[in-house]
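stuck on this one:
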Amino acid sequence: MSIEGMDILHVAGNISYGVLETGSLVDQLDIDIGNSANIGFNYFHNKFGMPYDFLLKSSLSSGHSLFVAIKGSTKLLGFARFEQISGETEKTYRGKTNVVHHSIHLLRSIEIHPAHRHVGIGRLLFAIAVNHLKTNVITMPDNPGAARFFKDKLGFTILKPKNSGLSSRYKGYLVLPYPRAKGMLKTMAGDYPRMVMPELIGTYEALKFRLNMGKSITSEDISDFMILFESSRELLDSKLEDEMNSFIRGFNFK
């Protein structure tokens, strides 16, 4: 369960990933602010003296897309802010409409609670966001560590403004083209299935263990597993999908 009114896009364990669309939803967040006695969000607070609820509400009032990772019901683990700077363009030829250029969004910031970094939450939050936006993404890291994260973990490359149709003001920015952004979530699910789909993988392994130990598996057990399987099917690579399908076919409940 997450904050009331949040548009949930993905759930992994006790973490919900989704979109906040109104400032009133920000008021429901439990936001840890870092200080000498507490580990918490600190970048904008330390650099600009900016309250985080004000930052997030201002982003929403400016028309930005705000994606969040929430632990439990209200605890904020991370957020990513996107600003659309170019819309999708279409061209009609012989009665058929084709997308000429996908939209371009500027990733204004992404920040993960310091106590929850280096476990994949930032990458998963970003992958879910760009999968939802269906867009090219550009950004300008403000420190070497952030630049390495975008290049090494997310696959960004140096932007060439002329080739992208953007002005020279974006020279030096990094870009993640739409085709790569589109497949990022499924790629992560293939590389780190236990992180992206913990309920599905955990249930599957538990059922296989019970089967190997000669313990009974009921029709309800398989039914519950199939619900998880169907809800995650689009994220599965073909090998794991075939393996799970074969496992399900091994049971012939009437």
